[in-house]
Amino acid sequence: MPESVKKVVLAYSGGLDTSVILRWLQETYRCEVVTFTADLGQGEELEPARAKAEMHGIKEIYIEDLREEFVRDYVFPMFRANAVYEGTYLLGTSIARPLIAKRQIEIAAEVGADAVSHGATGKGNDQVRFELGYYALNPDIRVIAPWREWDLDSRSKLIAYAEAHQIPVPTDKRGEAPYSTDANLLHISYEGKALEDPWVGPDEDMFTRSVSPEAAPDTPTVIEIDFEAGDPVAVDGEKLSPAALLTRLNEVAGANGIGRIDIVESRYVGMKSRGVYETPGGTILLVAHRAIESICLDREQAHFKDELMPRYAALVYNGYWFSPEREMMQAAIDATQTHVTGTVRLRLYKGNVIVEGRKSPHSLYDEATVTFEADQVYDQKDAEGFIRLNSLRLRTLNRRRG
Q1: 21-to-56, 119, 120, 156, 358 alpha-carbon distances in Å
Q2: 41, 44, 118, 192: which has the highest count of C-beta atoms within 10 A?
Q3: 97 part of the active site
């Protein structure tokens, strides 16, 4: 018999897997289940999840719109760091998990639950991300991970269990979807099944958030993004909330074939994984943020940030959002953003994001210094001593070799 559980808060999408998990929890643990469904901008109607939960006799059902909190408190801080995992991945799935975990723990406290549960498999990163979040926020919480406990180790067994318990099985699930997806306002991912061979390219009809670069308009789109203290606040002069701004960037980027990547990444659990991602607005945002930083950050600030970034990105990817080291790095990164205010002009064309201009009231770019014309600021003769001093050790080493 499993250890006694009184009440569990389940991260519930309303799909086949979490619907089976819901019933399995009731049957295996004989406990009360509370469902939590988060709207992070995945673009799906979430009210059907309520009806499915009610069908299973669930009395406490949480369906919450967390889009603004997601972008404001998770996506934007991550983009202040210019975080990119292994040079390509903009961390769209990774950054959503800490918010879901946080809200689950909060709901558990509200309803007096002694456990939480998720639908992540035992092979993936998400189990780590969810559970590190749970334990960071409530070290005494009980975590139930059905994919690590039950014997439903195949799709056919899962469907058989669903049918035996009158759980609706979508038609496409019977034949299996050609890949698995995860979506939120920042991105959508496609993994597994038809994509498992990294030599085989994805079908064009798979993509949902962008046209192909070949099908994008022949006329470029020019946009301007305003930043204040490191965060984007307006597009083409129109002030927008964080979620509305990312939605706008997703639309304009997707229409221009921007944001697709096909990568093989190193999972925290030790294996390589091939994934195809669409991150339209995030791709624009990364380019724009680096552009405004290029005129607002001191050289050593910028270089030190770039040194921190891979470690920061790995912490997000591996699930350490609530760790003290990530918070320390965030504080240092945020300290650099005080003067990162201004406007970036971008040209979007057939999958490309091209910086055309940048300006800031706090710009460190000084035309009087960099001009090729005569100036009163920079004495070129000073460079001789600068070079001789910096070459001293190289000259000394050469003499020793001689």
Answers
A1: 11, 7, 11, 15, 51
A2: 118
A3: yes
